[in-house]
Amino acid sequence: MPYVKRFYLYIILGGLSLLFTGCANHSTDEGARRVAYKAQIAAVQDAIDSYKKKTGVLPIKNSTESTPIYRKYRIDFNKLKAYLPNPPSDAYEEGGDFEYVLVDPETHPTVKVIDMELVSEVQDLNQQIQIYYAHHKFAPLKDILADGRYSIDFKALGYKNAPTVISPYSGRHLSFFLDEHAKVEIDYLPDIEDVVKKSGKTYKEGVDLRALLVDKYPYVPIYSVPYTMKKGQVEFLIEDKKK
């Protein structure tokens, strides 16, 4: 099937899925969005596979060594026009909520997305912390959570209650913390604990458990740090700085 025709077939199927899901359940928009969203990811994945097969490379934007792993391989839709006439309607380039990225680029390039609402909220909070630091000459730290992981003193920032973000995995409220560079991160520990519990498996200490979220869901854990299993509990994975 020609690439362009295949693209429109995905869009039609996505629209029908959205329509039927909406008719079946008027009480929530979440399920309807996920159905349509899966169809659009499938269209992008098909285009990526075709592009890679023909060119031998991936259609990604430039990045640097310091780019966080889950933002390192952002899809460049300008390179995909022969396979995908336009970016998906939910893509950030089209005014949508998601930035499309690749994971496992070396062995099995797989399309995932970043929830840009999370990006916006973290960037806003980072800006407030930078302003605080410029004025006070120290970061608004509260408690030590682990080596290089700190809770945030939101009262010092003028908040009455600590802000949170909605998890793209569970819909629960996730908290923020600061890393060793006083940069804001999102605490995905409750979501990782859920996935570990449901898997019924145990994992070796040192294994980064964020991969479980990436394998199970279409979202990548943006603004995250590594987690691992230690003595049966999910904890921050802290690198040994002595190595």
Compile the SSE list and pairings:
Layout: H1 3-24, H2 30-55, E1 98-103, E2 110-115, H3 116-136, E3 141-146, E4 149-152, E5 165-166, E6 173-174, E7 176-178, E8 184-186, H4 189-199, H5 210-216, E9 227-230, E10 233-236
Antiparallel strand pairs: 1-2, 3-4, 5-6, 7-8, 9-10
Helix pairs in contact: 1-2, 4-5
Description:
- With 243 residues, the protein is an alpha+beta fold.
- The chain has two domains: 3-108, no CATH class; 117-236, no CATH class.
- 36% of the residues lie in helices and 16% in strands.
- The protein contains five helices and ten strands, in the order H-H-E-E-H-E-E-E-E-E-E-H-H-E-E.
- It has helices at 3-24, 30-55, 116-136, 189-199, 210-216, and strands spanning 98-103, 110-115, 141-146, 149-152, 165-166, 173-174, 176-178, 184-186, 227-230, 233-236.
- The strands form five sheets. The chain has a two-stranded antiparallel ribbon with strand order 1-2. Strands 3-4 form a two-stranded antiparallel ribbon. Strands 5-6 form a two-stranded antiparallel ribbon.
- The longest helix has 26 residues, at 30-55.
- The relative contact order is 0.10.
Strand percentage lies at 15-25%
Number of helices: 5
Number of domains: 2
Basic shape: globular
Low-confidence stretches: 1-36
Q: How many strands in all?
A: 10
Task: Let me know the average pLDDT.
Answer: 87
Helix content: 25-40%
Give a quick account of the main beta sheet: strands, pairing sense, barrel closure: 2 strands, antiparallel
Separation of the first and last Cα atoms: 53 Å
Class based on secondary structure composition and strand pairing: alpha+beta
Provide the succession of SSEs.
Answer: HHEEHEEEEEEHHEE
Q: Strand sequence of the main sheet, in spatial order?
A: 1-2
Please tell me how large the radius of gyration is: 20 Å
Protein name: Lipoprotein
Signal peptide: 1-26
Keywords: Signal
